[in-house]
Amino acid sequence: MDRNFQVAKIGKTILKLAEAIGEKISAPQEQASERVLKAMQQLVEIIAELRDPAGGWPSDIPQTPENITPYVLEEVSEVLDALNKDAENKLATGRAIGENPVPKELENSEFVLVEDLIPRVLWYAVRSSYHAMRLISGVPAQLFSEQGSSSGTIRLVAGLAGFFPDGRWFIDLATREVSSYKEAIAPKSFRSALIESRELSLKKPVKLETLAAKLRQQIQKTNPEAARLMEARTALCLQPGRLWQKGSIQFAIDFDFFAEPIAEIEAEPIAEIAAEPIAEIAAETIAESIAEIAAESIAEIAAEIEATSEISSGRKTALPIGTVFRVEPSVALDRYCQENLRQQLATAVSQIQENFGKSFSPDSPELIPQLVAMATDVAVRVEKSWLNRENLMDEAIHRLLWLVVRSSYDLMQLVAGVKARVLQPEREWVEGTVRLLAIFEAKTANMVWELDLSTGVAPEVGTILDREAMVRSPEIELCQQLVSVENILADSIARIRETSPAVELFLNGTGVALLAPGQSWQSGFAQLNLVLEIIPDPV
């Protein structure tokens, strides 16, 4: 990177864009009718029965969409009939045109500070998928390349690139590290390498470039604003101390791999490894708030230490590494499963409507195979939904964290921590970092165990804010005016309930069963509680 672009000043640089990032994008929004969803659900249920091991499917015939199609022609016909009737109704009544949500602070604005753009674009990547969040933090993996294989940590590098006369820079959105664009982009030989990781639910090794393409597609589909940034955008740039320059910016993703020599890991003394409180990381982004739990070796050692000692809240954790977790059957779980199925069906129908427009002819050579393939995919997703199976507790915690932070940009910022002023009853004004703690608590007959989803350790005593306390922070829209902790929590819960039915299950509390290594299953109760904490600035 040309040093004319000083690292310390890039965050304070102003970008003037040819088009506002938050500019409203009008686009057709297909709303599937109840008739279509019901027909699609019947198709999915039949496919699920065929896939069931007890369903009698011949063991020597693979369960591909092509092989499944002859058994579901009647259900496919009903789906096509429902889709055609929907299309006719839309032509008669007019198509609904919706608007994608627009970041308020960027709406109708041509100017933006780079330091304000960084967390917003990072959130676009984080909310796109659970695996994107895990990869941004880094996950254990095996890399296979022409040079051989090696174990280590694979990490998704989501970055903002700038191309200007004074230099070509690249900002890692998660770490805030700045490098030259040339240094940041991995060589083609690395992209063609194969990656394997149990953390990513990969059935077999895949090329990094294939994985990158899928992640890029998910980001673009989830966030229209991010899709526009993934193409080079013309921009003017004003860095402190310099003149306006014309160039472009672009949101890009790539991978980095950190090999972990076994000798170095074995030589590292356990006593020196501990989970560091999030407050000491100057957390401003979700990557910083989940960095500790992403490093598996550190998290495991920290958990083992916590399992044998009193934690700060005076409780003991009795969940060793390898504890298995499942949600017990209940009316609430059934309701969630139905809602999850409807969401999956709506997504599949929307994709079919987008691909084939207004005509859904059974004579189309591509329509029926694609329809069966999508219905099969829905059946598999529902079958493998994490709440319908046993999970390692570690995975359950990661998934809950993702569901919380993806619900809104403000919530991601609050989980990471924002600078704020706070006044509690009978106390003086305090300046510091305010964080939203999502505290997971599990109870059985033998133990009570709790942790903060973002740090992986028990919350500190004495830092929790009174619900009547007043908070003000210029960093997020939710707290730009004085607002009570009670209202912040109520707003946060409402946003989570709206976007994440699975989290609502835990907010209300649900029956669970836990299986620790070497022990039998224990029935219990799990609940997710939201509180705010204050970490005062040093005096």
Model description:
This protein has 539 residues and is α+β, with helices and mostly antiparallel strands. It has three domains: 7-24 and 104-267, no CATH class; 32-95 and 329-387, no CATH class; 289-309 and 390-536, no CATH class. The protein has 20 helices and 21 strands. The strands form three sheets. Strands 1, 4, 5, 6, 7, 8, 9, 10, 11 and 12 form a ten-stranded antiparallel β-sheet that branches. Helix 5 packs across helix 9, helix 15 packs antiparallel against helix 16 and helix 19 packs across helix 20 (501-508). The longest helix is centred in the middle third of the chain and has 26 residues, at 331-356. It is globular and about 70 Å long. Residues 23-29, 95-109 and 264-316 have low confidence and may be disordered.
Beta-strand residue fraction: 15-25%
The major beta sheet can be summarized as: 10 strands, antiparallel
Count the DSSP helices.
20
Query: What ranges have pLDDT less than 50 throughout 5 or more consecutive residues?
Result: 23-29, 95-109, 264-316
Mean pLDDT: 80
Shape: globular
Alpha-beta classification: alpha+beta
Q: What is the C-alpha radius of gyration, as a whole number of Å?
A: 25 Å
Helix amount, in percent?
Answer: 25-40%
Please tally the β strands and state the result.
Answer: 21
State the separation between the terminal residues, measured CA to CA: 37 Å
Number of domains: 3
Oligomer: single chain
Summarize the structure.
This protein has 539 residues and is α+β, with helices and mostly antiparallel strands. It is built from 20 helices and 21 strands.
